[in-house]
Amino acid sequence: MTRTFIYNFTPPSLDPSAGATIALDVSDIEDAGIREVLQTPGAAYGAWSILDALLTPTGAGTSFLFRQPLGQAREVKVALSGLFGRFVARAYLERYFGLSIFAHLGNHVIDLDRRKQTRIKRLTRGDLPDWIACKSDLTSLTIAEAKGCHDPGGPAKALARAWTQAGRIDVTVKGRRVTVKRIAVATRWGVANSNPADAYLSVRDPVDEGDPIDPQDKDAPFIGLLRLHVANMIEPLGHAELAQALRTLTRQTFPRPLRERRVHDVGVLERRSTEACAEDFGLSLAEGKVILKESQQAVLQDQVEEISEIERVCQTCQTYLPIHDRRSRRIDTLFGRVTVEAPRVRICMSRFPGFPNCTAAFSPLTRMLPGNATPEFCKLQADLAARHSFREAARILNALTPCARQNHTTIRNRLASVADGLEARCDETQKDPEVQSGEREMTVFLDSAYVRSRPEYQRRNFEVIVGSIESKVGNKRRFRLSLAGADHPWNA
Fold first, then answer.
1. How does pLDDT run across 44-65, given as a tens digit for each residue?
2. Whole-model pTM over 0.70
3. Integer Cα distance of 363 and 379 in angstroms
4. Helix orientation angle between 74-96 and 26-38, rounded to the nearest 10 degrees
5. How many C-beta neighbours within 10 Å does residue 36 have?
6. Contact 136, 100 (CB under 8 A)
7. Burial class (CB in 10 A: 0-12, 13-18, 19+), 328
8. pLDDT of 97-148, one tens digit each?
9. Residue-range domain boundaries for the chain
10. How far is the CA of 168 from the CAs of 6, 102, 174, 428, 451, in angstroms?
């Protein structure tokens, strides 16, 4: 049996059914309610036809009026208004917009296809919209929110709330916004022999244009949405394992495209073709440093994202762990000091059953690079420091590489840390019980320089050796000596 609502659509140019009233079959609303309830977690299935019995028996084509108000207490009215509002809105969207695939949104970000980085992104705080939906031919991606109310002044306030809620998310593919329709549907109920007496259905439906999407990725949001729709539909029917397998497909990261082609702009080179000179040929050292540093930035950021995605899968229960927060980390590399956005991942409490309410997070990047420097860079610093003076090693690095500005203190500290690491590894493999560690341990630094004689003075060439002895208790002693060029070696 068909019933009508007083109808309002914004903008009028996109109205799928022009007119002052809109008609919906009661059976269609009930069928939409069946589908809505089936896709609700914990719902049972079955055939039902209760809505028509709640309406006034005025016949087909008449207004959608309830016999009596939906409950007496305010809490009951709000609950039933929201429930029947979803039924009516879904029936309206199915009939007039041709939508047939629906996925419910909770309070968390939903991955539609993690392989292609397709997800639903929250924009502001608050409740998320009711659905993300599309047509059966995988077109017309839609974000929809339904509201039901008893406001005597009409559905305008409910429609405004619904529209605000519909704007709280975006659908993104690799960080780019996807074009979507945002639809807010507000229903104001009418009650026979009471106030309000008229039933209204108000809709707001502009198209939100997104960013250009790679043609290979355009189907990813629709396929992920279809998987969630089917999973939510079949789980109450007893197919929980199949439903879970479909949801897992949207969260899988493997085979992750380390083979995926990624393009980054690292710089622009310009050369004169007319009046060229010798300096115009090839790359200059400064240009090479810039290109290496920008390339390092792009590669490192991509690696951090890949490693973080892998670490978000719990090895115990295979749950996809949420991101706690994101922090900027500076990493020293041979090709520059790079700043990356590194996420911290919530630790899964399934490993700690005794602490269900405890929240903790870890950084995958800290585990991989605890010293915030790449091993290659540390090795080169230590190698140059062992062959040259600390200042000379710093000068070589600054002149030939795009690394962060080095000084003699940085080189010295790096050499000491590398030496400590080598000693620790030696102690683990071969430990002499007769050697006792203690406060008497010391570190000796040596350096030398060869001083040439001046011809007018007729003096011999001689070598100067300088050094420093340090202990862990903080004592430091410096010395210098010359084995030639004086009557006796001297030190201080």
1. 444 455 667 777 777 777 788 7
2. no
3. 24
4. 110
5. 21
6. yes
7. exposed
8. 999 999 887 655 577 887 788 888 888 888 889 889 999 898 999 999 998 8
9. 2-233, 287-366, 374-428, 441-492
10. 28, 18, 19, 56, 74
